[in-house]
Design a protein that fits this description.
150 residues; alpha+beta; globular
Length: 150
């Protein structure tokens, strides 16, 4: 009797392992999250007119780089918000989506405010870097992201 039970259990285990990869091959999962950043303002990019090249501030305390793995094909939406402590509308932050090592710009939002956002489509899973820089804003910001799988 125990031999029959062992044979049945082995057959069921092999069948389950054969089906598991096929069930896992479905669409990429959705994910979302957020994190806080505290950055010192550095108006270097504003003063030199280099806005559009990513966060290349002279002061490293003005930049935050956050690696994120996109799980598969789908759309990644990233939003950066920072309160304007002066109430004048002069706060300025930038948001960049970079490749995994942070050297190539994939997308960016660099308007003259403390609200920036990007939406990017990916054909496959990959690691990206969310790069945030504080040019002329208050010290605190929040980055939220949402990935919707295809």
């Amino acid at each position: 009797m125990s031999r029959r039970l062992a044979l049945t259990a082995t057959t069921l285990m092999v069948a389950a392992l054969a089906v598991a990869p096929a069930a896992h091959a479905g669409p990429a999962k959705s994910m979302k999250g957020s994190y806080k950043v505290t950055l010192t303002p550095d108006p270097t990019l504003e003063a030199t007119g280099q806005v559009g090249d990513g966060c290349q501030a002279l002061n490293p305390a003005a930049v935050d780089n956050h690696k994120l793995t996109v799980p598969g094909a789908g759309t990644l939406h990233v939003v950066l918000d920072s309160p304007d402590p002066t109430g004048t509308g002069n706060a300025d932050w930038d948001l960049w989506i970079m490749d995994s090592d942070g050297t190539t710009v994939l997308d960016g939002s660099h308007g003259g405010s403390a609200h920036e956002e990007t939406t990017d489509k990916f054909k496959k899973g990959q690691q990206v870097t969310i790069s945030v820089c504080n040019l002329l804003g208050g010290s605190d910001g929040t980055v939220t992201y949402e990935f919707k799988g295809k």
